[in-house]
Design a protein that fits this description.
Blueprint (H helix, E strand, L loop, with lengths): L1 E9 L12 E3 L3 E10 L6 E3 L3 E11 L14 E3 L7 E11 L8 E17 L5 E19 L4 E3 L6 E10 L5 E5 L4 E5 L2 E4 L7 E5 L9 E11 L6 E5 L5 E10 L8 E4 L14 E2 L5
Parallel strand pairs: 1-3, 2-4, 3-5, 4-6, 5-7, 6-8, 7-8, 8-9, 9-10, 9-11, 10-12, 11-13, 11-14, 12-15, 13-16, 14-16, 15-17, 16-18, 18-19, 18-20
Amino acid sequence: MFLDIVNVESGTLNNPNAGAPAMYLGAAGSIYINELKCTGYGACFQHADKVIGATINKIYTILPSGSSPSAAAPALLLDDRTGDQDLVLYFDEIKNFNTNTGDAVQITQGKALLLEEVYTVQKGKSLDLTNDIISAYIQCDEIISLTEGINIENSDEPIVIVANYIEGSDGNVGVIRSASGSNYVLRNAKIKNVSTGSNSVCIFINSGSSETDQTIEIENLILVTGNTSTGDTIRRDGNTGIVIKNLGLFVNKLINEELIILEIGVGLGNPEYNYKYIFSTDIN
């Protein structure tokens, strides 16, 4: 398969395409598209199978307030088949402007390498990485959700997220929320929760039965909670601590060191490996 297209658009604002994606692909090949737009409530780009290399400058989902149904698919979606799909995507923008719901990117199967600029979502998650996802490497400038953030639930190869700026609110408890068994690396980002409520959490880690039930590595992060009284820069749910490999951390609120065990190198549980972090109220 080889596609070289200027613009693709599916659905209309008055008569949304009934759930169908603007582009649904299950074949191997290459894609070059300037702008891919879904003005209905299907996905802009749904990748179901095979290996695809793609350059798509702009990916937009647009569904205005009051449109029916209220639900919308993600702008970019990997799911629906055997889990063998493998996507390498270069892009400028991925945006879901549905005023009701809908994620920017959802990957539930396969592998993905996403490179370049901006994700923005109005009412859903900027990234939803769950279920049978094998691996993902995501590198871009900004990842922004106006209401929620990034959701991680994987148990295979590490998910690596590299970004200059990641923003979210309290709609999914944290800007980044991870479930038991997750395996991920966060690198080189300022992560900011713009909410001023009690759930203004930068990284929320679900409760677990052991200190190593998730594999988490943070490298050169700045964490900013919008509520330094009852919010948290890192929050571990429950009463069991979690080990995090720390290679550079700056926060505007002290973490709970009984539940957040910052370590590097070997000897998990050995205090001599517990490296410190930098706290300052000037971090914003």
